[in-house]
Design goal:
Low-confidence stretches: 1-11, 297-306
Largest sheet: none
Shape: globular
Mean pLDDT: 79
Strand content: under 5%
Order of helices and strands: HHHHHHHHHHHHH
Structural class: mainly alpha
Helix content: over 70%
Number of domains: 1
Radius of gyration: 19 Å
Number of helices: 13
Number of strands: 0
Distance between the termini: 18 Å
């Protein structure tokens, strides 16, 4: 893996690539599953149930393995990560997806690898590069196409803003956590998801949501899938992060819309226009350029293969 984020895979480096591919598929389907769960469950309740169940599973795993919970500055980092990454990002995501199509949500989160270096530069952690501006400009063009298409389809502007804010929260959570010492990932996620769940419950109560017990088989299956996928994604992302750079791992986000558009059309009956597809492709290319991924195979790959 190159230091600048260029994706350089050795011929035998198949394991992380397979895990990365599975992560993209599962995550892309998650947006459609959330749309199904939102049909019966209030958005904040649905998010709280998801992360509450996942937090319990992570905590039980930590107890079984005798993994200590984060303390001191590590706990502070985990709590901030939970507020931004789980309560903030997913509260906005779930709420936005009550009226916006699943594909719109996945495209907005595809901007995370683009927003992250901007926030990292604002925090003084990284320096901006020309490719970030170039890719960002291209992604803005793609978003303009998407917004025109979605606004014509009567998607409320508030939902679009909420989804974009969700991407900002997700990117900021990944930047903020770097300021604090790291603890075991299972313990960090248990603490972060627990505080995220508490915040989501508070938002639900403040918003006047009436909690319901899911009765529809579709809702139950969607909720079970979301909870299970959260655990699976945790394991897969850790596996990939252990072998690839964080920048390369974050490139999963621009690939989500491909899976979401297909699944949304087949499972949820969400129509997709040609303009939306063009906008999705433009956003993806812009993010890849900003992340420093070459659009052509480098000669070094051929040399390694030989």
């Amino acid at each position: 893996m190159a230091e600048n984020g260029d994706l350089m895979l050795a011929p035998r480096d198949r394991g992380p690539l397979l895990a990365f591919s599975i992560t993209v598929i599962i995550s892309g389907l998650n947006f459609v599953a959330v749309r199904f769960s939102n049909r019966e469950l209030p958005p904040f309740e649905g998010a709280a149930l998801r992360f509450g169940a996942a937090a319990i599973l992570f905590f039980l795993y930590g107890r079984a393995r005798r993994i200590p919970m984060p303390r001191g500055r590590s706990l502070t980092g985990a709590l901030l990560f939970g507020f931004l990454g789980f309560s903030g990002s997913y509260a906005l995501l779930y709420w936005g997806l009550t009226t916006a199509p699943a594909a719109m949500g996945s495209v907005m989160l595809a901007l995370v690898p683009l927003i992250t270096p901007l926030l990292a530069a604002a925090h003084g952690l990284e320096r901006l590069r020309l490719r970030s501006f170039t890719g960002g400009a291209l992604a803005v063009v793609g978003i303009a196409l998407l917004l025109r298409d979605q606004l014509v389809a009567a998607v409320p502007i508030a939902a679009v803003v909420a989804l974009f804010a969700a991407a900002i929260c997700a990117a900021e959570s990944g930047v903020v956590v770097k300021y604090f010492p790291r603890s075991h990932p299972a313990a960090t996620n248990a603490a972060a998801m627990a505080v995220g769940t508490v915040a989501l419950v508070a938002l639900s109560l403040a918003g006047g949501e009436t909690w319901v017990v899911p009765r529809s088989p579709t809702t139950i299956v969607a909720l079970a899938y979301i909870v299970a996928s959260t655990i699976v994604l945790f394991a897969l992302v850790l596996y990939v992060l252990g072998r690839w750079s964080a920048t390369a791992t974050s490139l999963q986000f621009p690939l989500f819309p491909i899976i979401t558009v297909i699944a949304g059309s087949v499972l949820a009956g969400e129509g997709v226009t040609a303009t939306f597809l063009v906008g999705t492709v433009v956003v993806g290319i812009g993010v890849l350029i900003a992340a420093g991924v070459p659009l052509r195979r480098k000669r070094t790959l051929a040399a390694e293969a030989s």
